[in-house]
From TrEMBL:
Domain Legume lectin: 48-278
Positions of transmembrane segments: 312-338
Protein name: Legume lectin domain-containing protein
Feature: compositional bias, Pro residues: 283-299
Species in which this protein is naturally found: Zea mays (Maize)
Length: 352
């Protein structure tokens, strides 16, 4: 049978093992419920309820990914998925454009042939869908006349192409490239992606635009855990002329004469450089089930009465747990230390 001393030490060990997770949980609740949420310029997309779908785009089973096209020749051949709330990207009074950073994983699967590819885009319209046949659903086919702006109906678009089809008429360098489109289907910069966009495997992309430096960079990797040191595409570009006060962020794809499945998942996005932009770094690994997006920039989330009440409860519970721990330590000290002192005194007297 264990001695009282051994039993108390065992209890103390169990408390020491079990209490830290509870304390950590309390700390997590405190951080998540006491601090105001950052602006909506930073969000993790909840696919099922926060996207505007156009054309052939659809939410995948499980609501953790979106398919921009179908693996068939049916339908319109192009699809677009946009975050339903606009993002603040420009301040007209100062002509200041926001910087932005985004990360997402995509997969292009032929069925059996390839389509045109997909693109990440910022656009001033939530309802416009461009043409297929090389246009990636970004621009109308009439924009290929080099007149561009006159044919766009006032819609401005900035896009990063992940192109899997060479269209000579659109000045594509090959059937596997990444490119920057600034208001036109005719890319202002393109490069080899460093990966095979047509491999049918998940590829993670990081896109970053620094407004003050007027520089856009794109990194690509088969691994979602580490961004390559060197970008696949790095281009000097002043995008401020294409920015509107609020724009929509999302993805677009088209199949043209092919039939490929273009799927996007694990998307994060943020802006920075404006007065009310989020300055927190994007997460290194988005959660499997993205959280609910935040409110628009002019409506930051604040603590409600219920949240404050819960926060007070957490403080009280934390204090009680801390008191219990101190009491246990005091009991252990008295049980272990005082008997040992008594035995030592008895031995001393017996020796004398």
């Amino acid at each position: 049978m264990p001695t009282p001393r051994a039993s108390l030490l065992t209890l103390l060990l169990l408390l020491a093992v079990q209490l830290p997770p509870a304390a950590a949980a309390s700390k997590h609740r405190h951080a998540s419920e006491s601090a105001p949420a950052p602006p909506a310029s930073y969000f993790l997309v909840s696919w099922a309820s926060n996207l505007t779908l156009l054309g052939s785009a659809s939410i995948q089973p499980g609501a953790t990914a979106v398919a921009l096209t179908t693996p068939s020749h049916d339908g319109v051949g192009a699809g677009r998925a946009l975050f339903s709330e606009p993002v603040r990207l420009f301040v007209p009074s100062s002509s200041a454009a926001a910087s932005f950073s985004t990360r997402f994983t995509f997969r292009i699967t032929p069925a059996p042939t390839f389509g045109d590819g997909l693109a990440f885009l910022l656009t001033s319209s939530r309802t416009f869908l461009g043409a297929s046949n090389g246009f990636l659903g970004l621009f109308p086919s009439s924009s290929a006349s080099d007149e561009g702006e006159a044919d766009l109906g006032g819609v401005t678009t900035v896009a990063i192409e992940f192109d899997t089809h060479r269209d000579v008429a659109l000045r594509d360098p090959d059937g596997n490239h990444v490119a920057l489109d600034a208001g036109s289907i005719f890319s202002v910069a393109s490069a080899s992606p460093g990966v095979d966009l047509r491999a049918g495997v998940p590829i993670t992309a990081w896109v970053e635009y620094r407004a003050r430096r007027r520089r856009l960079s794109v990194w690509l990797s088969y691994s979602p855990f580490r961004r390559p040191e060197k970008p696949a595409l790095s281009a000097d570009a002043d995008l401020s002329g294409l920015m509107r006060t609020y724009m929509y962020a999302g993805f677009s794809a088209s199949n043209g004469n092919g039939a490929a499945l273009h799927v996007v998942e694990r998307w994060t996005f943020r802006t920075f450089g404006l007065a009310n932009s989020s300055r927190a770094s994007p997460p290194s690994e988005p959660p499997t089930e993205p959280s609910k997006p935040l409110l628009p920039p002019n409506k930051p989330q604040l603590l409600t009465g219920n949240h404050k009440h819960q926060h007070l409860i957490y403080k009280v519970v934390g204090g009680v747990i801390g008191g219990i721990v101190l009491l246990v330590f005091a009991i252990v000290a008295s049980v272990v230390w005082f008997p040992s002192q008594f035995v030592a005194q008895v031995k001393k007297k017996s020796v004398q």
